[in-house]
Amino acid sequence: MKVIIHGGFFSESSTSSETKLAKQKALERIVKAAYHYLQDHTALETVVYACTLLEDDALFNAGTGSQIQSDGKIRMSAAVMDGQSQKMSGVINIEEVKNPVIVAQTLMAEDDRVLGGSGATNYARQHGYEVFSTEIPQRRAEYEAKRKATGTGTVGCVAIDKDGKLAAATSTGGKGFEIPGRISDSATVAGNYANEHCGVSCTGVGEDIVSGAVAAKIVTRVTDNMTIEAAFEKTFAELRPYDGFCGAIAIDKAGNVYHQDSHPSMVYASFDGQRLDVFN
To answer: Is the pLDDT of residue 62 over 60?
Structure first.
């Protein structure tokens, strides 16, 4: 049983040592909580749980603390994928919900499993998810000052459970100041993908990740008997010609945990009950 999480890129926020330490501590706390949760839950349940903890922490750009778009509104996206059933569900540009990843999980039971915009928001309301503002003062100050959004941030989790089943979940608050209606990678197979062989969650510039089909390529290559390291190397090499901005975390069916970024520095943490690895 293993868990790896990411919290976007460190460059998305203040580069102060205090912020770096706070993120390290938050990731350590969350990855350990997720591993403890995994003891009695499936990989699918665990990746959702881990993402809700990340969404609830304003240090990260997902859920609470999400970026504000160019029209002054926050729209979020999230997806969940079960490696065993090969089902993916997600929400795109959902508004005013506390945990988009939980709405994405609820959609797993539907025939129509990916909803966007008002359809996603209305679905959330119909299923008891109350109106919740995820805006924090820092994001409003950034918006009012018309500063460039400070990064490419997303959160995600990949887990393998005691039965060897894999799952991945990803949630994002956007890049900030984007054109309303812009679609990120997080609720697509480019940013969040898993099967029985491998699970991957991405962060970075959504347009680059979609152009590179990053998560789907890595999983497909592992499925085709590439090592996880080789699959990452080939996929990230294909990002270089256009300076693709991406970070990814993964676990394969053998329990190998891997992460890589094309630009410094993706923040991540992994835990297997004994070894803790946190970005530094």
So the answer is: yes
> 217 in helix, strand or coil?
helix
Q: Would you give the distance in Å from CA 112 to the centre of its chain? A: 21
The top-scoring range by mean pLDDT among 58-72, 89-103, 143-157, 169-183 is 89-103
Q: Does domain 2-270 match CATH 3.40.50.300?
A: no
**pTM, to two decimals:** 0.93
Q: How far is CA 211 from CA 184, 215, 247, in A?
A: 11, 11, 14
Q: Using CB atoms within 10 Å of the CB of residue 260, give its burial: 0 to 12 exposed, 13 to 18 middle, 19+ buried.
A: middle
What residues have CB less than 8 Å from 215, skipping those under 6 apart?
168, 189, 190, 191, 192, 193, 200, 201, 202, 209, 248
Q: Which of the residues are catalytic?
A: 154
Among 173, 135, 133, 136, smallest CA distance to 154 is for 173
Distance CA 41, CA 37 (A): 6
Tokens linked to 137:
């003062």
User: pLDDT digits over 120-174, tens only?
Assistant: 999 999 999 999 999 999 888 877 775 544 455 799 999 999 999 999 999 999 9
Positive or negative CA dihedral for 248, 93, 184, 219?
A: positive
What residues does 172 pair with on adjacent strands? Answer: 77
Instruction: Please give the structure tokens belonging to residue 218.
Output: 């890595």
Angle of helix 228-237 relative to helix 214-223, nearest 10 degrees, comes to: 140
DSSP 213: T
DSSP 8-state secondary structure symbol assigned to residue 89: E
DSSP label at 60? S
| Domain residue limits, the chain | 2-270
| pLDDT tens, residue by residue, 196-210 | 999 999 999 999 999
Q: Under DSSP, is residue 80 helix (H, G, I), strand (E, B) or coil?
A: strand
Q: What's the half-sphere exposure (Cβ side, CA atoms, 13 Å) at 85?
A: 11
Residue type for 89, please?
Answer: S
